[in-house]
Amino acid sequence: MAATHGKGTVVYLDGYSYGDQLRQVDLDDDAGLTDITCFIHTTGARVVPGIHTATMNLQGLLHTAEAATLETWANSLLAAAVNSQVFVRPGGAIAEGDVGYAASVRAASLKRSVPHDDVCGITLDLAINGQLTRCQVIWAKVQGTQLGGTAYELGALSATQMLSAFWFVTAVGEDPSVAGTVDSDDAEAFADATVRATSTTVTAIGAQRMDIAGPVTDTWWRFNQGNGGTLTSVVVAGIVNLETI
Questions:
Q1: Tell me, what's the pLDDT at 67?
Q2: Which residue has the higher pLDDT, 244 or 54?
Q3: pLDDT of residue 237
């Protein structure tokens, strides 16, 4: 049923969570095959891998204040043509260990219906900029002191792979100023951890992405939040092939 497809899906758009208000979430992944039949002698159609593309469509009924926030966020992307970060996971409340999909995106279009009472309809189309990453939630906490998160065995990185980590900060305490790191080790105990990436300092809600290129022989990974303010945040991470130009 299209009217209920995607209902309850967890959706983070930078520092905003819209899962409760969305009634439809579509994530289309296209292999991008290219027809080369006209370039070769053959008795049948021939195709080769083309450009892999993905898009996301979000539809929902939002309270006017929430719709205005989403509209401001989308319009800033449309005007500046900058990347934003998105995470989508089917189901209800998010927890560490959950699996979903994350990506850098650009807003393609935004449609807003005329408000009725305090509700209006929103349709948002997003274009995946780069690769769609299958991720695992490795951090989902309200944290005010330095803490190394739970270790997850995401695997080693070959020379043609990278680990992408997305940090979504959805709420902050007073005067926040805190950074985090993505660490790796060869054992779950993290007795000899190596810092692989360091975030920029967080001072407000938002999201950022950290990419770690291989090769890395360590197979265990975690997120480590420093001191500097209480944050409500989620970190997801996954391994993909290195992007090439």
A1: 83
A2: 54
A3: 96
For 175, other C-beta atoms within 10 Å of its C-beta total: 8
pTM of the model: 0.87
Vertex 179 angle, CA 128 and 162, to 5°: 40
Within a 10 A sphere around the Cβ of 98, how many other Cβ atoms? 18
141 vs 151: CA distance, rounded Å: 14
CATH number for region 10-33+44-128: 2.40.30
Distance CA 184, CA 198 (A): 12
Assigned CATH topology for domain 133-241? Jelly Rolls (2.60.120)
What is the model's pLDDT at position 42?
A: 64
Reading the block at residue 162, the tokens are 């990278």
Write out pLDDT tens, residues 71-82.
888 888 777 767
Paired tokens of 178: 């805190």
**19-23, 66-70, 112-116, 181-185, range with greatest mean pLDDT:** 181-185
Domain ranges for the chain: 10-33+44-128, 133-241
H-run or E-run covering 28: strand 22-30
